[in-house]
């Protein structure tokens, strides 16, 4: 049995999306920028995808720019706005729990002479509007806060945060890679000037994304070259990828409500079973204001990586919030930002569902997880100390 519970890392390309993409690899291979009629169909397909994506967030198709993924969109939004508005000011505000595509770009901008404020979050991972209000300065040009966190699933109060940025004359960017197509979003209602999204987090292909740029926002081009994307993002368009992301957006819009209901119910069942059946476990993130498919736990006296390896042996694919996989032994910056101690943050496990996840899979996962946590604790000297102390007390 193979159980894929890592849908926050990437998702399966749905068969309808793949079917839509295939002709653009073979029959319709023309460069959409070409003049001849053979290219016209590809131009049309690209513009159709732009419409499908714009419709999902209430934007105008002209405000959608195709990129090579969420990381590029984040880099573009931050670097190019910083450059375009540097005469107005050099102060940028973000949060401590952003994806590294935002955090590492901010660190780069600091080296280039910009000043960045990294806002604290509360114990559930929320950025409070008051905290942002206090951090705003006359020279603040940009605020970038993610719509929902990729590790703990917390949904941020984006509409209020965007409003504050605007009241102070700053632009508002949001990394919506985790929420795009998963929860309802409208760029006008939530005061957004720029929004990053990625195809592969909503059953579309990898290597394609978008940056929404509100009409009127000054932004420098990021990839210099040809005149594609109105001269703002050069490079031959990734037609199959774009067509796939468009179809994925269309499907996401159509099925969103049923998917949200299904995933939320199954996710809550998972959380309830884990918290009630595994001692010394906790849920990370906000209980209600969280992505429908996200569950993130910490188990005391257990190492996240050991859990992952043992789950893998049972055919269960999950993730630990920690950055250990990238060769560092530091626990997740998100879990530290919500106030967890290193020791506890190390024992984290993220399970992210899809609309295809079944109750049987969740039951099997919890049954195996119980055994795994028990086994790992039996090997843990910390747990031994802890139980000995408890008995002594
Ligand atoms: C996955 C992810 C990214 C990166 O997107 P890619 O398309 O993989 O480059 C950025 N931000 C968040 C919140 C993500 O979850």
Bound molecules: pyridoxal-5'-phosphate
Percent helix, as a range, is 40-55%
Mean of residue pLDDT values:
95
Which CATH class of the largest domain applies here?
A: Alpha Beta
| Counted beta strands | 12
What proportion strand?
5-15%
Series of H and E elements: EHHEHEHEHEHEEEHEEHEHHEHH
Strand order of the largest sheet: 2-8-7-6-5-3-4
Largest sheet descriptor: 7 strands, mixed
Radius of gyration of CA atoms, rounded to a whole number: 22 Å
Helix tally equals 12
What would the principal axes of the Cα set say about the shape?
A: globular
Distance between the termini: 44 Å
User: Helix- and strand-based class?
Assistant: alpha/beta
Account of the protein in words:
The chain is 41% helix and 13% strand. The chain is of the alpha/beta class and 393 residues long. The protein folds into 2 domains: 3-8 and 255-392, Aspartate Aminotransferase, domain 1; 15-252, Type I PLP-dependent aspartate aminotransferase-like (Major domain) (Aspartate Aminotransferase, domain 2), CATH 3.40.640. The strands form 3 sheets. It has a 7-stranded mixed beta sheet with strand order 2-8-7-6-5-3-4, with helices on both faces. A 3-stranded antiparallel beta sheet has the order 9-10-12. Strand 3, helix 4 and strand 4 form a beta-alpha-beta unit. The longest helix is centred in the middle third of the chain and has 39 residues, at 239-277. It is globular and about 80 Å long. 49% of the residues are buried. The mean pLDDT is 95. The structure holds pyridoxal-5'-phosphate (PLP). Pyridoxal-5'-phosphate (PLP) binds at residues 69-71, 74, 99, 101, 146, 150, 175, 177-178, 198, 200-201, 209. The site of pyridoxal-5'-phosphate has 15 residues, from helix 3.
